[in-house]
Each structure stands twice: as structure tokens, then as C-alpha cells.
Amino acid sequence: MYRYDEFDAQFVRERAEQFRGQVARRLAGELTEDEFKPLRLMNGLYLQLHAYMLRIAIPYGTLSSRQLRKLGYIARKYDRGYGHFTTRQNLQLHWSQLPDVPDMLLELAEVEMHCLQTSGNCVRNITADHFAAAGSDEIEDPRILSEVLRQWSTLHPEFSFLPRKFKIAVSGSAADRAAIMVHDIGIQIVRNDEGEIGYRVYTGGGLGRTPFIGHEVGRFVAKTDILAFIEAIMRVYNESGRRDNIHKARIKILVHQIGPEEMRKRVEREFAEIKASGTLQLPEAELERITAYFAPPAFEELPDTSPELEQAKNAHPAFANWLRTNVDAHKVPGYAIATISLKAIGETPGDCSSEQMEALADLMDEFGQPEIRVTHEQNLVLPHMRKRDLYSLWQKLDALGLSTANHGLATDIISCPGLDYCDLANARSINIAKEIARRFADLERQHDLGELKIKISGCINACGHHHVGHIGILGVDRKGVENYQILLGGSGAEDASLGEILGPGFDSEGIADAVENVVSTYTKLRHGGERLLDTYRRVGAAPFKERLYAR
Amino acid sequence: MMPQVLTANRLSVGEVVYWNAARGWVAHMHDADILPDDKAEAVLKDVGARGVQERQVVNPYLFDVRVDGSTVVPVKTREAIRAAGPSARRDLGKQAD
Amino acid sequence: MPADRAFVAVADNEPLPEGPAIVSLARFQKERDLLLARGEKLGLRLEASESPELIGADVHKIDLIVLNVPYFRDGRAYSWARLLRTRLHYKGEIRVTGHVLRDQVAFFTRVGVDSFELPRPTTESDLEAARSEISQVYQPSVDGRETIWDLRAHRRKSTTS
User: Is A159 within 8 Å of C153 when comparing Cβ atoms?
Assistant: First the structure.
């Protein structure tokens, strides 16, 4: 993974010290809240319901054990002993105090981390496929480009005051595990007919109040051109994006209003200008330097079948269940990708205690794991586990409450923090997630239902990605009472689609029943091995509406 | 119109606080002054502004409450959660004090 | 470029002053010949929605371009300054006015802005401090400053030589 050199290290230290000065000026009254707010947002510090919330950047979701351990330590020392992994692969601490934040930033700087640009109208954390460097379908590690873009977009003088926030995601394979189609810019690594690697670029995707699937603006952008191409999109957006209405300010609105064809034209024109002036190319040597950090670890030569694994699988049904869902094939024989579920039944999705973080860091060291990944579905991934170590890992995860065998199943629910924590929320989401998880806890039932992505947001901002849930749930405020709308048919994968609202919402008591009714409608109508998503796409909303509303 | 309570967050620690004329900014809603709706705006303009000016608090505002005998209940769920703490973690926030 | 403070800004319906004047784009487009024939330096003020491309070929006849920032969140002026310096090869003074935070001065400086009218009175030394607040930068910009990428390349050269 990327390691800071002294330039990166000095950069984040300087930012931490700069923020220390800004906090001091604020507390001394030299800055009003209006003047301070944009400055604290540039360091990811929000004021939420109960306290300040600090959003820590985890570039493309990758952490070393040292970094994970430090996060656990910071959560314990400065917060309430836990953190929340988000749908943008970041970590949120919900109980921060303003005078502590400069120290927290310094602690983070010590392990090559920061909170820069996790808020504000700038380029946010660039997310990437959490199976990077391990998935067998990968064309190229998407984190190389992500790191290039991360550096380029950090404190970019022209693009730090965009009309609105800007989210970029990168996928390294045909399968989309990074939800690139619903990002402001989505980049897919592809090969052309000559076998060269390049980038397919989409823009104008996004969730929130008005969701859109992204449009292709670049069919095949060469590696030497990609920075200039991205800059072109950003410039068109910065110049022409709406600034009159905060709800109409994302690039997706611009693309929708002028049309994808016009957008493509404007981007091409700007791109041609940038290329003509020849200024924006990443130096070849710099690209090589960054690429070298993402060289795969030294893999042992192992047989693909592990006798230890097979034996444990046969002897321990609970472990066998975990293997079924939480372990994916690795491109190297004898290795496997392990998903650590942060969705224990009855627990807050995506939350992780300091003890768990520190224990996981120890496990990483014990099993020689150089990296752990945060996924946009709020789980963790150990991408390079040896098959022979899986049983031992599972036992230890089990002792930590981290062995829930539900990856991709109904109880692997994505949920924003919602009204329990968030200043923007209209309804609670965590309690709904917990209740639904309780209803579907039976593992055999979950396996019968197959892949079922349930995503819950506590407000229209859609941080829970409800638009791309097979079942999406949107919490709203209906005359002062929490109310939940159901959407069906969304997908954030390469078959991207936006969920459709089924009908009137349900209250807190009724929503879990409604979800059960949706699921039972699916089981009655399904053909073969269809997922709920597939059945919905085949039969449409009518049977579901009838089940839920006809009376 | 309903009786109101004046609330804000402490500038430094971000904690939720409520206004009590005798005691200042207090931690618990049950210690807050209940402001009759015709007085509330004036208190917000005066006390709220002063609290911001003196760098005690940020973002002061009023919210509606229902008075049920001796119990004060916020009309909005959001304020009930601010007063108690996250319902998802009963061991955290003011509810655990 | 040091700020030329002799310019006087005039509204569209006001008579022009004796010396250098700053007029709106609309006024320039209406009274172009008159303004250019005055024999005085000419300043043009652009609103946030007005791209410098609207000035057209006359851009090189303008001595000062003032970019108005209506609210600090409106980041169009950064692109306009950059556009002026790069595609339009503008060599005159670029000034930023309006609701500009001190903490934005460094960004504006990087994209080619020379001078500032800040809402709060600011000393020259304070402004200088604000300009140079980011000691190292990652990405190239109009200012041609060495980037961290350049510094790395230099270091590689010197260690291999």
C-alpha cells in the first residue's frame, strides 16, 4: 500500500498545525462560526446532534495494522471507544471535542492519516474496489489511479470551492464492487482491442434527493490522458454547475439539464485545451513510484486446496457457514479473501469498538496481513488470507463478535447513523436495521433468500445508499412521526439501477412487517435461483404493491 | 402555540445544552426553563446571541415542548434524542449520566 | 504584480472618473470604443457568472480584471483566473473582490490572482502570510510552483547522479 514520503508526511503535519491555529483563533473569538465552519469542514469536523463528529479519511478503504490500531487508540482516548465505518470507506467518530481535534490530527499524521476533504465542496475520499489486488477478475489495481487522483485533488487551488461535494470511485474489473455508476465521476479500468489498459469514465451519477445513473463521457481514456480528462470534467462542473440551489448543485443535475451529449462535448473541448497546453500529465517516474507501492505482497507457493481448511470445514458447521458467504476466491492459489462482517445481529451496522479494532490489528500481524480494507457496505476485508489460516482466523473473530456469517445476505444491512446521531436526519435508521436483522436472523432462511441487499437511509441525503438497495428504506418525517418508505429494485453493481418507491410509508412498528411481506412475495414468485432483485425486475412492482397495500 | 425551550451546543465540547436563567447553560433538558411562546423569541435573540458572542455556544434555537404535569416532553423526536442520547446506544449520552 | 490602487470603480449609470476606471462587462460591451479611446488604463469587473471568454479579443486591452466573489463558497473565480492566465494568456493584473476569506488567498494566488480586496482590513504582511500558507503543493497550477512531484523527481536525480 502507499507509504508517505517526507513530503506527504510534512504536508499532513502542516495541515494539522494549520488547523490548530484555526481552532485557537476560533476559541479566542478571532473567527466567527461562519468563518470557522468552512475551515473545520475541510478537516472533516461536523457538529452533529450530540457532539462534534470527526470523519477520518481512509483512502480507497485501505489500512495497515498500525493504522487500524491507532484508530482504535484514538477512539478510546478521545472519543467513546468505538467508530463507525461509512459507505465511503471512511471512519466516523461521533463524540469528538473541538480542543482535542488538533491533537487527534497529529496522532493521525503519525500513522500517515488525516481528515482532509472528508467534508466540504471539494473532491472527497476516492473509493475503490475493496477486493483490489486480490479479485481474480481484476484488470489493474484501481488504487493506483485512486492514489494519483488523491494527491492531485488535495488542496487543489481551483477545485476547493465547487458548487457541491464531489465523489469519485474507481473499479478495476468488469464487476463493479465500487458502485461507480452512482458517483459524480466513476472510473472503470478497461482493456481496448489492442490489449492496452485505459479508463472508461462516467459522470453525473449520484444518489440523494435526485438519484441518477452516470453517463459515459470517455469510452477509452489513455493512461497519459486521465488526469487531464478528470480536470476537464471538474472545470466544466466548477464553471457551469448550479450555485443558486444547494439541492440542484451536484454535477448530476448539470448533466441532466444540458444532456449527456452536450456534457461530452464540453468535456472534450476542455480536455483538448488542456492537452494542447501540455501541462497536466503525471510524470512517468511519479506514476512508477506510486505503482510500486501497490505491488502485490510476496505470495507463498501453495496448493489451492488446504487440508487444514477442508478438515475444519467438515468438523465445524458454524465455520462452514462462514466459508459459504464470507470467503471469496483469490487470484493466487492457496489464498482467499475474507470478509469480516460488522453486522452482528442486534448491533449497529458498521460500528466497531476500540477493542475490536486493536484485536483485528493484532490478528493482521499474527496472520501476516499487510492490509485490511473497509468496504462501502460497511464491512472489513482481509484480502490476502492463506486458506490454511482461515479456521484459526474465524475462531478468533468469533471470540470478538466478528464472525457473523452473513456477507451479502439479508442481515448484511447497510445503514447510515440516522437520527440517533445525525443533524440532517429525519428518522432513525439503526433501530430499523436491528429489528430487520432480528427478524431474518435464522441463517438457513437467509441462505434460502440468497443475495439480498437491504440499505437504509435516515433522510433524503441517502448516505445509506437506499436508492441502490435491492430493498431500500428511506426514513422520513411524516407530521412529526418517523415514517419509512420502501423502494425495490435498486442495484449499485455493474447492473446499476435505481430503486422505485413502492407506495406509502410505514411507521416504526410496521416497517419490519412490511419488509417481511416483500420477502414472502418474492419467495412465492421466484423462479429458479432468482434473487429478490431478479424477481422484481421480472414481475415488476404490482405483486409487491398488492401484498403490502391491497386491503 | 406551544411552550418552548432554548437549546444550543457548547462551542468547545459540542455537548447539547439548555438555557436556565438562574443557572446558565445546563446539561439536562429537565433543568431547562420552559419559555412561554410569546417570550421565547426575545430570549433567543438576547441569551442565544450573547452565548454565541461570548463563545459559550453555537447554533442556539428554540424547540416546542409539551408540559405534562411535571414532565416536559419535546414535540419532535429529534429533540428527545438530543436530550437523551442515541437510542441505539443507551449507555451513551445524557441518558447514561 | 503590485496592486494598482489608482483605479476607481464606477456603476453603469455613473460618469467615468478622471483617471483609470473599472467598469462592468455590460458597460464595456456597450461603450467599448469610447472606453478604449480614453487614453487611460481600463479595468473590467466580472461577476461570478461571467466567463472571461465573454470579453473576447479585447482582453489584452484590459489593464485590470476584477473578479467578484459574491459568497466565499462560489468558486468560479478560481477557474476564471486560471482561464485568463492560461488559455487567454492574460498578462494584466487580476484582482479578487467580495466575500473572500483570508484562508482562500493562497488558492487564489496559485491560480494567478495578483491582488485582493478583502472584507476585513488586512495588513500587507498578513496578506503575505496568507499567500504562502501552504508550503508545499501536490498539483501544478498557473503559478508554475514546483510541486511535490517535481521535488521528488529532483531528489531522484540527485541521488542517482
Answer: no
